[in-house]
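Lay summary. Proteins are chains of building blocks that fold into shapes, and those shapes determine what they do. In this project we predict the shape from the chain. Here is one chain we studied, written as its sequence of building blocks.
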Amino acid sequence: MDTLERIILFETIRDDEVAARLAELLHDTTTDSNLIKATREAFYSTQRVLLNNLGSGKISGNYLQDHICRLIAESENVFSRMSEDGVFKDLDSGISAADLKKTLTPEAETVILLAANEISLISEVYRFDFEIFHKVTDDYDIAAVPVSNASKLSNRELIHKALTRDDSLAAAVTLSDFYHSYGSGVFQAASALTAEDSGLVPVPNIDDISVHDLIGYESQKRMLSDNLEILLSGLPANNMLLYGDSGTGKSSTVKALLNKYASNGLKMISVAKNKLDLLPGILEQIANRGMKFIIFIDDLSFEENEHEYKAFKSIIEGRVAPRPRNAVFIVTSNRKNIVKEVWRDREDQDDVRRRDNIQEKRSLADRFGITLVFSAPDKTEYLEIVRGIAKKSGLSMPDEELVNEALKWEIRHGGRSGRAARQFVDYMVGIKR
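And here is the predicted shape, written in a compact code that computers can read:
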């Protein structure tokens, strides 16, 4: 039986063209012309697939290994799901097969032993000896090229470590650490994803802003952080509404906290207003995952003639699909009540209908357990933000000059805000370089 035909869990490897061809060559010891032909065919098909990865490798190793690491990261199976849920998180990499019974259920023991066996099979291909190719062709071999940016290791380095271990059970424990920390399938590719009609799409280059880059709004950041730590602990957390003036850092604060807690298994799914109908499916998709999720809806507001807010309110309440314990909604808006109110709402025909109409529009905001206000800073706060950003940016200016120029910028460019302060400092850094 072919090596890869014995694989049950890691279907992405079993069905991969490159891995299948290399596995065939590993176990074919004949020297006839058919083997030479097969080797040459395997060589060129390997090059075609791996050429697409050239320049994108982020592990120590070569492009074949980078390819296999990606396939394993994308694999979703019972082992990766159990790993996400932390079933194997207390296992030491030195544990023996005999000791598994003391720690795991029979089902979990079976799964990790199966994973260990399959990793040992995959490892044979992972350590493929490229001298086989060199005997039949002198053409340049992409597969064996060392990854050029190996010093910038990605999270897939844990997979590389697993596949180069001699102990297959230790390798399975190491791989489970990867899935527990980063997830599997589409979720492992990035900490942030966007919702599209075609499905969830990873955002590989999310803003690397940190909490320390944000100056001011300390109580708001603390409340957000506390609520996310409750979520990460596995306890019920509150949905959160962040409202206030434009440019005050509502979205940046959410991104900064995602970066802070991403290593703890926190993911963010960004949903645009015109994609709110996708929410029930998203909640169903993430409900049984081991990771924790922010469902992030940025700059949300509804006009008086938009009634989609009623459906969104039902989703928030859990009427359409119950909100999973591993997710919270975080919504930013410039309006406290999200739904626009007009004087006509207050001038209805009678008191009862007027009160009901206003209450209906305000009821969406009431579905958020925590509401945080991000108000435009006063003059003192604005200048404090300017000074803080200038210091972090390495801008060297006399304080009096910095203050005078910052106040001029505020007048000419739309008022005081954290965004205005950042734009001012970026401008000054540019002209004084």
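What the prediction tells us: Strands lie at 192-196, 199-202, 240-244, 266-270, 292-297, 327-333, 370-374.
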